[in-house]
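User: What would this chain look like folded?
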Amino acid sequence: MKLKNEKREILIIILILIVQTLVFIIAGINKSYIHMDEAYSLGLASYHRTEIQENEDFYNTWHNKEYYEDYLEVDSDEQNDFSQVYENQKNDVHPPLYYLLLRIAMGFSVGSFSKWPGIILNIIIYGFILIFIYLIIKKILENTNNCEKKSAIIALLSSITLASISNVIYIRMYALATLNIVATTYYHLLLLDKRNNDFKLLLPIGIFALFGTLTHYYYLFYLVMLVIMFIIKYVKEKNYKQLGKYLITILLAGIISLIIFPYSIKHMFFGYRGKGAISSLINVSKFLINIFEYILIIDVYIFNNTLFIILLIILFLIIHKKLKGKKYSKTKNKYIKYIALPTFFYTLLVSILSPYITLRYIVPVSSFMFILVIYSIITLSDNIFKEKTTNRVLICIYLLILIMPCLTNRVIDLAIGEKCRQEQETSYSSKSEIAEKLISETNLPINTITKFTDMSIYDILLYIKDYKLEPEVLYSNKRNIVKIIKENSNLPALYIFDSNHNRFLDDIILFTYINESYIAKDIKCSEEEIKQITLEKNTSNGVLIFINDGQNNDNILSVIKNALDLKNVKYLDRLDSCDVYLVK
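Assistant: Here's the prediction, encoded as structure tokens.
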């Protein structure tokens, strides 16, 4: 019977791995663009320096598309050279383990840029994450009926939230950081069941502590709280011998990490990110705003916009329990606090110290947030209802989580107007024209929104127009601009570049499609200058124009039209900090 149950459990895990993988592959296929930091990942793993902009010939010279592709791919002469991974990370702000794995993955597509090596690497990592998450949930629910089935469903749902899908298709180290955290947690939970520390448990704890430290420094936020809790545990039990073994394991992992990558000290305490994090500790008002913004991110991406509904359900269950006079179960779950407290501590520190308010920093603990909330519902329901009723409540919540993104997007369509949402930007001569139409056709509270951001009204409206509740880095709204650039790749491209707003790597993917391009750095945009730059280029069929922030777009476009004797301007799209036009 035991063997039969084990086979059934393995089959269940295989099935949810297949479903999970199919979801990730579909998301990967639909990923239409890359973020600046994803470009960094590819460049840091393969290029001979941290940024392509550091090349002496980068600015004020015509380049072909291969020049930019070189930053994002492994060339045949680089295939067996891994030294740049370590050297680049010395000069960057992250440890090198993820970049080494990415470099190995990129070696399977030598001589061509592809999003797939990074995505496939994360899909493989998430296979291991799901197994550990399943085992953790099973341990938490070990005294409940149908433990394996419940664990499988919760594990699957936690792996296909918008946060998890974003984590997989985002070509950064956060999927690996997630694996290190869930694996570290699982082996610590096993350690709770042991009176005497087992070498078979201490070894993987040490290995994942080492891997975690070499993946992302934020991992230490989680590990530190977990270690403090185990120190308290052993001291209370007066089990000093086991405490010594445990601490030696953690210290050895730290020492080996510093031997492998001693530059961690410089990054954490003397680098610009480290100094910025330390200064954030004393800014209380900023911290409170950060907390609020992270709660919104948690709602949208970890609970698919259902968090506040679920919290109302939990509140209802608590009130119902009080009114019925039912007492909580006296059986305490000894594992929960070893997940909840490190997760809370990690989230709190990230809210204070992270340089930006964004999903990526909290995604390594997103599955634990999901599990803790669902566990709360299961625990409350089990103390109030019969098992059938509890299961019905859970099924309703699961369905709501799955369908909520579709419902939310439909509501946004109705608020903005489907016709307005679906119109192509190319039918307008400027983004201001699109914004004016949006203002006239919608009743959006723009003036209220502007009080909380430095974004212009035009950019806010365009953001709202393109907004969808979907994985953060799917970039479905960039599908159109990619298509247009590919269709016009034979036209020369001119980037009027203000170096005070340097986010070129957010735009680099488009330049890998354009045959000829020129990055004009901090030029005085005059007709003579434009004529000189394009002297030997055929602009009779038009020219693609990129203008980044901090400049007067209309004046620049007017000068370019006059200089090249062109008549029409079409606004194509807004990138992260750059507007794209077709002048012909």
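The CA atoms of residues 134 and 155 lie 5 Å apart. If you want, I can go into more detail on any region.
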